[in-house]
Automatic annotation (TrEMBL):
<feature type="compositionally biased region" description="Low complexity">
    <location>
        <begin position="45"/>
        <end position="71"/>
    </location>
</feature>
<keyword id="KW-1133">Transmembrane helix</keyword>
<keyword id="KW-0812">Transmembrane</keyword>
<protein>
    <submittedName>
        <fullName>Uncharacterized protein</fullName>
    </submittedName>
</protein>
<feature type="region of interest" description="Disordered">
    <location>
        <begin position="45"/>
        <end position="74"/>
    </location>
</feature>
<feature type="transmembrane region" description="Helical">
    <location>
        <begin position="15"/>
        <end position="38"/>
    </location>
</feature>
<keyword id="KW-0472">Membrane</keyword>
Length: 233
């Protein structure tokens, strides 16, 4: 966001992106910018990566010593990155000694710098609070996500077509994700499980990775999350 912009303009932009994340008032893009999407990251100059992006996990963790929250790879392209964000957002295990703040941190770690504080609030809305986590831990609860569909919503395409030049940075995109949230655990001595459909939208921005061999891939950052079950369509 331009630090020289008037304070009133900056406030309007913050209100607008909140409305867009809730799927509202896209026509306002004609006259004001989109908070959080006003500029993307500059192309990165760094050594070429030697590893590959971590695979998408769509099954619960196994074994007697489940791993903690895994870092989200920012390589592999926008769709791969959005999938990994979704899996990190819904994948947690109360039995491994980690808490909701630990699972939130791996997502905030891939935030676009200017969005980190407000994104942290988005992430907290998806995770159990400390009291709920303590109750879930008593039942050895685990959660994971299976993704059924992922697409760029029509509302996003409308927003980009209405935006003035420069309002939305090159490489910014929204993905709406439809899937099933799964949980399992114990009730007394009996194993229990539950699932329900969910849908939400992630807003990301990607830029080329530039090395001495030229452009070798893309590096992505997370801008915002919609409210759960209130996505862009």
């Amino acid at each position: 966001m331009d630090p020289t912009a008037p304070a009133d303009d900056r406030r309007r932009r913050r209100v607008l992106i909140a409305l867009i994340a809730a799927g509202l008032v896209l026509a306002l893009l004609v006259s004001v910018g989109i908070y959080g999407l006003l500029r993307g990251p500059a192309p990165r100059t760094e050594p070429a990566p030697t590893g590959t992006a971590a695979p998408t996990i769509t099954a619960p963790p196994t074994g007697t010593s489940p791993a903690g929250p895994a870092p989200v790879s920012q390589l592999g392209g926008p769709e791969t990155f959005a999938r990994q964000v979704a899996q990190a957002l819904f994948g947690w295990d109360t039995t491994n000694g980690y808490g909701p703040a630990d699972y939130a941190q791996v997502i905030v770690d891939v935030a676009a710098g200017e969005e980190a504080d407000v994104l942290a609030g988005d992430v907290r809305a998806y995770l159990p609070g400390a009291e709920a986590w303590a109750q879930l831990r008593q039942h050895q609860t685990r959660q994971w996500l299976s993704i059924q569909e992922m697409f760029v919503p029509e509302a996003w395409e409308t927003a980009t077509s209405q935006a003035a030049p420069g309002q939305i940075p090159e490489g910014a995109v929204a993905y709406t994700i439809e899937g099933t949230r799964h949980r399992d655990g114990t009730w007394g001595t009996e194993p229990v499980e539950a699932s329900r459909p969910i849908v939400f939208t992630v807003f990301i921005v990607c830029a080329p990775v530039v090395t001495n061999r030229g452009i070798t891939g893309t590096h992505c950052e997370l801008l915002r999350l919609s409210q759960l079950d209130n996505p862009l369509r």
